[in-house]
Design brief:
This protein has about 350 residues and is α/β, with parallel strands linked by helices. It has eleven helices and eleven strands. The longest helix is centred in the N-terminal third of the chain and has 27 residues. The N and C termini lie far apart (about 65 Å).
């Protein structure tokens, strides 16, 4: 028993030290109130857990129409981290987002086999419209992160709703495309045995199929690919979501990896809001670097959200062909969102 107690004490000490360090770090940085809308869903629950554990978050607000949502928040509240957590449902949406600094929206129905992201348009478009309208009234200065698919249309819908409410700031609205970058890093590292944690790669365009354009020529540290490897990796990154949908065999779409990617992007947003310099992420924002009104490219984040939108740099003819091909689709999908939001006002 004495040996067992000694072993447990040794195990606990590093965790206690890490927790103490995290607490000290939290005291030194600004605390954020963050809302997750769709918090009881397949993405929402793991995303809420990751945000509850993030030392930058001091208050987590969980909203979902599902009656279980207060219970999800109660469950999360038992995690020993430096944030309180409250759950809301029903008519309490505005109460849930009141005074939030960051709002993350994964709400919506998931894709099933054979469905495209566009098939989700009407259902998820209505959900995003209603949630963003509440944000416009209760937290008009919040940074809004849209995960709900189809992102290529739901982000334009959100922008139109915010315009209708008179509070649109293009620096504060983001489509989360981080999962495409996460997949690119993971797949490339697995293919060539490199360290996934030291790899960077821009993934530009949009967040659906062939609108997702990984710039393999810009991988750092530099990696060379045969044409066959390049084609296979590009295809897998573009259609990584389909891989998960098929593997779940009707049980849903990417949830855990999306929650991981969403939490990673939210962390970058909060770091930049807190004054950290040089935070750059690929994200889907209002942009002028192409003919698309919204486009994903590397964006340096700052205290007000978007600080600098960067071009995509020098690309290969193969990559340029993919970019040229995706632009008409991105324009059409954004226009569909704008037109729907104008015809279906909140």
């Amino acid at each position: 028993n004495r040996n067992r107690k000694t072993m447990l004490a040794r195990t606990a000490k590093p965790f206690a030290r890490n927790l103490a360090r995290a607490t000290i770090a939290t005291q030194q940085q600004r605390g954020f109130k963050v809302a997750v809308l769709g918090a009881a869903g397949g993405i929402g629950q793991p995303l809420s857990l990751l945000l509850k554990l993030n030392p930058k978050v001091t208050e987590l607000s969980c909203f979902d129409l599902a009656p279980v949502t207060p219970g999800v928040a109660a469950d999360l509240a038992h995690c020993s981290s430096n944030s309180k957590c409250v759950g809301y449902t029903g008519d309490d949406l505005k109460k849930a987002v009141k005074d939030c600094h960051v709002v993350v929206i994964p709400a919506g129905v998931p894709r099933k086999p054979g469905m495209t992201r566009d098939d989700l348009f009407n259902t998820n478009g209505s959900i995003v419209r209603n949630l963003v309208a509440a944000c416009a009234e209760a937290c008009p200065k919040a940074i809004i992160l849209i995960i709900s698919n189809p992102v290529n249309s739901t982000v334009p819908i959100a922008s139109e709703v915010l315009k209708q409410k008179g509070v649109y700031d293009p620096k504060r609205l983001f489509g989360v495309t981080t999962l495409d970058v996460v997949r690119a890093r993971t797949f490339i590292a697995a293919a060539n045995g490199s360290d996934v944690n030291k790899m960077t790669i821009p993934v530009i365009g949009g967040h659906a199929g062939t609108t997702i354009v990984p710039l393999l020529s810009q991988v750092e540290p530099m990696v060379t690919f045969s044409d066959e490897q390049r084609d296979a990796l590009t295809q897998r990154i573009m259609f990584g979501g389909d891989e998960v949908v098929k593997a779940k065999a009707g049980g849903g779409s990417a949830t855990l990896s999306m929650a991981y990617a969403g939490a990673e992007f939210a962390d970058s947003i909060m770091a930049a809001l807190d004054g950290k310099k040089g935070v750059t992420e690929c994200t889907f924002v209002e942009s002028t670097i192409t003919d698309c009104k919204f486009f994903s490219s590397p964006v340096t984040l700052g205290k007000e959200g978007v600080e600098t939108i960067h071009g995509y740099g020098t690309v290969t003819p193969y990559e340029q062909k993919l970019i040229d091909a995706c632009i008409p689709d991105l324009i059409a999908q954004a226009d569909k969102g704008f037109e729907w939001a104008k015809a279906n006002k909140a």
